[in-house]
Design a protein that fits this description.
Oligomer: single chain
Number of helices: 18
Strand order of the largest sheet: 3-2-1-4-5-6-7-8
Bound molecules: uridine-5'-diphosphate-xylopyranose
């Protein structure tokens, strides 16, 4: 059975470890965070991701998946080591590669056999993979050899397990073709297209894919602003656009815009790469500006609808950056809540799973209250603001919500509920764009 070590047990690393084990490989997950390793050994997943817990449980029981805080144990006779650590945004906007470099150095110092180092962390093209290859060459004990292979992930939070087993494509970038082919072969049971290329091309494919999806979102949000001025319905426009196979209907949902740990980081990083190489990208800058503007637009819409925000009560439904996850990184809801509080409103908020993570990120505020359910959050509110399209918000008892609210205004920033139905129930239902 092929032995694989995996460094970094976050959203991507843990999903990758569990899915590779499910495919029959023997996987040992390593993390510097010993407390997290102890949790994982007991089958406890430190974040919310559908389908992941049973997958981890099943593969630990089958003896195909283990966790350790000792990197020597993890690397022990592993043929491949996957690096899945974070590459957060640095103050300059460029990707911070310090965690990846630390993992590469640790592998170089600890390896006892030649192996393939698979870079799954999102790292920029134009020198980073080369730098890591130099470290390995310089620090590995001769005659050991390590080949770098870039293998970016395309997993969406909330559907990461599904996305792993049903990928649209696998991208592999290697200078050494046999090493690239060995990594590509891991995925052969998934029967999907495999792009075998060089590291820079593989890395840029990842950044360009995310930046394009983010651009689609900002594009439809820009069209939404025009639609409102000319009396058009942006949701119908998106439907009309999406029927063109060249455009496609996905990622054309106008609304509060994108958040999460990937789109914001990867668009900024790609813009920084362009800037660093002397060709700043006006398009990527615009994608970011439009996206940031949606959050301000939400606060403005509530201000206008309520005749000001001072002294008003706003119920904010949803904190996670998208449904089916507890991740609040770059979540639009958090920025809007800060704006509302700064402008004198009192905010009562609820999210099915993300409230505790939001409280770690959002500074406490005397006018910000976390509630146990949507009905508690709606009490006395002048308006309800739907910030995350959790399906359970569509299924709320809106008659009961209306009886608990003081006002009748709903700002649905995700196109979640039917404006006609809400108007029939006496609500004034607004959208970010018509
Ligand atoms: C994304 C990419 O989809 C995935 O391929 C990559 O590996 C990681 O980044 P993720 O960030 O988990 O995945 O979520 P995604 O479903 O792509 O949504 C990203 C953000 O865009 C969310 O905040 C979502 O609310 C928003 N979004 C998505 C829109 O505003 N409109 C849309 O039409 C689609």
């Amino acid at each position: 059975m092929k032995k694989i070590a995996l460094f970094g047990t976050g959203y991507v690393g843990l999903t990758t470890a569990a899915c590779l084990a499910e495919m029959g490989y023997s996987v040992v997950g390593y993390d510097v965070n010993e407390a997290k390793i102890d949790q994982l050994r007991q089958g406890q997943i430190p974040f919310s991701e559908p389908e992941l817990a049973p997958l981890v449980e099943r593969n630990i029981s089958a003896g195909r998946l283990a966790f350790t805080a000792d990197c020597g144990d993890a690397l022990n006779d592993a043929e491949m080591v996957f690096i899945c650590v974070g590459t957060p945004t640095s103050p300059s906007g460029a990707a911070d590669l310090s965690q990846v470099e630390a993992a590469v150095r640790l592998i170089a110092r600890s390896a006892t056999r030649s192996l393939i180092v698979v870079l799954k962390s999102t790292i920029p093209p134009g020198g980073s993979a080369e730098h890591f290859a130099e470290i390995l060459t310089g620090e590995l004990l001769p005659p050991l050899v390590a080949h770098i292979v870039v293998n970016p992930e395309f997993l969406r939070e909330g559907s990461a397990v599904h996305d792993f087993f049903f990928p649209d494509r696998v991208v592999v970038g290697a200078w050494d073709r046999p090493a690239g082919e060995q990594v590509a072969a891991l995925y052969s049971p998934l029967h999907c297209p495999v792009l075998l290329t060089d590291p820079a091309t593989a890395q840029l494919t990842k950044y360009a894919s995310n930046a394009f999806l983010a651009a689609k979102i900002s594009f439809i949000n820009e069209v939404g602003r025009i639609a409102e001025k000319v009396g058009a319905n942006v949701y119908a426009v998106a439907q009309g656009m999406g029927l063109d196979e060249r455009i496609g209907g996905d990622f054309l949902e106008a609304g509060l815009g994108y958040g999460g740990s990937c789109f914001p980081k990867d668009v900024k990083a790609l813009a920084a790469i362009a800037e660093r190489h002397g060709s700043p990208s006006a398009l990527l800058r615009a994608v970011m500006e439009v996206n940031a503007g949606q959050r301000r637009l939400a606060a403005e819409k509530l201000h206008d609808a309520l005749g000001g925000l001072g002294g008003k009560n706003v119920c904010v439904l949803g904190l996670a950056f998208k449904p089916d996850t507890d991740d609040v990184r770059e979540a639009p809801a958090l920025d809007v809540i800060s704006m509302l509080c700064d402008r004198g409103a009192t905010v009562r908020t609820y999210d099915p799973v993300a409230a505790s993570r939001a409280q770690e990120v959002l500074p406490p505020h005397s006018r910000l209250h976390y509630c146990e359910d949507a009905y508690e959050a709606a009490k006395g509110s002048d308006a309800v603001f739907i910030a995350t399209d959790w399906k359970q918000f569509r299924d709320l008892d809106w008659n009961r919500m209306g009886s608990l609210m003081k006002g009748k205004t709903i700002l649905d920033s995700r196109g979640l509920i039917s404006p006609l139905q809400m108007q029939e129930m006496g609500f004034r239902c607004l959208a970010l764009s018509s």
